[in-house]
């Protein structure tokens, strides 16, 4: 018994590995002891847990999806066809005065100073040699947010939970393939930990959904027909249906869960369904109804702001982020989004204040230093520009990230008139990421100035292969062909 209480203490202190070892000793002594089984499953789940609501933020294009209502959405009601709306008031702080729209990621999300899981595409379409460069995104992981990617528990499990399961001395005592859901549906103390273990650790969505079905059937057949945690099981059933690609079938379960309890996670899951089927207006309405029941809920306000970004309504999105920052001054995503709106409104000094605030909270990342360097550049503080980029390069470990730092550094060189340094930075950018379309395009422009038109044409052809939708690359390619 003392060992069991010691395991509970380790679990509360988040020492999951040590807790699992103590539970293994207890289970080898008595394999039928329910307490160690429950504690071990919770520890193994928490060790690899990732909030899949945050991890699936992108809008995937599925040409075989038959659940989409319309193939030609109305203007302003689709994420895939969204275009940033121009500012119409002197008070708006979302677009540049040069007329250039804000750059967007490969998934369609505007560059807002922070990257969320699922939106890690760092390619920057539409950047020109004469326009202001896009701000580097500040990593949410460095800011203390959730990390990871993938849209389902199976994607999350790869390379993580399977390695932890190797060498488990109690492995022969528990076989997922032999698990009978009806047997555990009647055991309230084990059913929830078992579901989380199946879904998050094992990645067996089908088996987890079978357990949800067994629990829901049992509760419908019970005398009362309802229970305090009925909403939770309906939400988990919907979560499983979303993971297997059936968002339409998940909607009734979430509606039922909302009738039993207004919980932010249920509202976020329902909004996520509408985003998946490209109905952002319905997702915004769901968040609005949730905020009426749960005023000033940060997660719902954040979801609203993100959806407004996706549909291109940047002024209202920034207002939501300002509301979030007033409620939670430590919210790094809101601060970064407000900062980038000031940057594109030609107020780099104000944007620098927000980025320095994020830096003071302990978010040290190459993206953040790159942002600060760009704000210093356009704010006239040239003595701080290169030290910021030097630190960003020292901290950049991923090739795509290093490529973007060199790409932004090339604009610093062009601003200072050092064409030779700009050419070297673009070469290093292309060496780190050969499909960086903006760097290939700008390199072609510099090469064309030296009248090396054949070489410039080859760069532009590579850029068009990497980004075929860019009008700028197509225009430059036609211009170069006139010299052939």
Task: Describe the structure in brief.
The chain is an all-alpha fold and 484 residues long. It has helices spanning 2-12, 16-29, 34-48, 52-55, 153-157, 161-164, 181-185, 188-202, 205-221, 230-243, 247-260, 264-276, 280-293, 298-310, 314-327, 332-344, 348-360, 366-379, 385-395, 399-416, 419-432, 437-449, 453-466, 471-481; strands spanning 114-115, 138-139. Strands 1-2 form a two-stranded parallel sheet.
Q: How does this model look, in words?
A:
By secondary structure, the chain is mostly helical. The radius of gyration is 26 Å and the shape is elongated. The longest helix has 18 residues, at about 400-415. It has helices at about 1-10, 15-30, 35-50, 50-55, 155, 160-165, 180-185, 190-200, 205-220, 230-245, 245-260, 265-275, 280-295, 300-310, 315-325, 330-345, 350-360, 365-380, 385-395, 400-415, 420-430, 435-450, 455-465, 470-480, and strands at about 115, 140.
Task: Please render the helix and strand layout as text.
Elements lengths: L1 H11 L3 H14 L4 H15 L3 H4 L58 E2 L22 E2 L13 H5 L3 H4 L16 H5 L2 H15 L2 H17 L8 H14 L3 H14 L3 H13 L3 H14 L4 H13 L3 H14 L4 H13 L3 H13 L5 H14 L5 H11 L3 H18 L2 H14 L4 H13 L3 H14 L4 H11 L3
Parallel strand pairs: 1-2
Helix pairs in contact: 1-2, 1-3, 2-3, 3-8, 8-9, 9-10, 10-11, 10-12, 11-12, 12-13, 12-14, 13-14, 14-15, 15-16, 16-17, 17-18, 18-19, 18-20, 19-20, 20-21, 21-22, 22-23, 23-24
């Amino acid at each position: 018994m003392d060992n069991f209480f010691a395991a509970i203490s380790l679990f509360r202190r988040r020492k999951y590995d040590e807790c699992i070892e103590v539970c293994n000793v207890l289970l080898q002594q008595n394999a039928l002891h329910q307490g160690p089984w429950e504690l071990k499953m919770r520890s193994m789940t928490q060790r690899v847990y990732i909030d899949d609501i945050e991890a699936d933020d992108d809008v995937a294009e599925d040409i075989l999806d038959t659940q989409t209502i319309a193939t030609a959405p109305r203007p302003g009601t689709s994420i895939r066809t969204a275009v940033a709306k121009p500012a119409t008031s002197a008070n708006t702080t979302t677009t540049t005065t040069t007329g250039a729209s804000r750059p967007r990621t490969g998934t369609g999300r505007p560059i807002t100073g922070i990257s969320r899981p699922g939106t890690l595409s760092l390619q920057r379409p539409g950047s020109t040699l004469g326009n202001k460069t896009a701000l580097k995104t500040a990593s949410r992981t460095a800011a203390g947010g959730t990390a990871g990617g993938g849209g389902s528990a199976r994607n999350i499990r790869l390379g993580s939970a399977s390695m932890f399961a190797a060498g488990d001395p109690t492995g022969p005592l528990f076989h997922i393939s032999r698990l009978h859901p009806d047997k555990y549906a009647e055991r309230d103390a084990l059913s929830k930990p078992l579901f989380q273990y199946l879904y998050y650790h094992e990645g067996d969505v089908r088996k987890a959904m079978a357990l949800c079905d067994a629990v829901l059937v049992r509760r419908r057949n019970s005398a009362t027909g309802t229970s305090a945690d009925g909403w939770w099981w309906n939400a988990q059933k919907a979560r499983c249906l979303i993971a297997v690609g059936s968002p339409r079938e998940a909607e009734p379960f979430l509606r039922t869960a909302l009738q039993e309890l207004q919980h932010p996670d249920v509202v976020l899951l329902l909004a996520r369904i509408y985003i998946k089927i490209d109905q952002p207006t319905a997702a915004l309405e769901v968040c609005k109804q949730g905020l009426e029941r749960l005023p000033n809920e940060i997660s719902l306000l954040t979801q609203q702001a993100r959806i407004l970004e996706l549909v291109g309504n940047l002024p209202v999105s920034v207002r939501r982020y300002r509301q979030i920052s007033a409620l939670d001054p430590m919210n790094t995503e809101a601060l970064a989004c407000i900062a980038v709106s000031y940057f594109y409104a030609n107020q780099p000094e104000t944007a620098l204040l927000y980025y320095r605030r994020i830096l003071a909270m302990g978010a040290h990342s190459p993206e953040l230093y790159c942002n600060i360097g760009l704000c210093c550049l356009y704010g006239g503080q040239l003595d701080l520009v290169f030290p910021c980029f030097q630190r960003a390069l020292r901290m950049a470990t991923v090739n795509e990230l290093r490529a973007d730092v060199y790409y932004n550094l090339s604009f610093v060189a062009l601003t200072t008139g050092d064409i030779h340094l700009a050419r070297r930075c673009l070469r290093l950018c292309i060496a780190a990421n050969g499909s960086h379309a903006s760097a290939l395009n700008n390199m072609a422009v510099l090469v064309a100035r030296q009248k090396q038109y054949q070489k410039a044409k080859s760069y532009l052809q590579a850029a068009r292969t990497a980004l075929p939708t860019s009008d700028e690359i197509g225009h430059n390619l036609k211009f170069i062909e006139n010299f052939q």
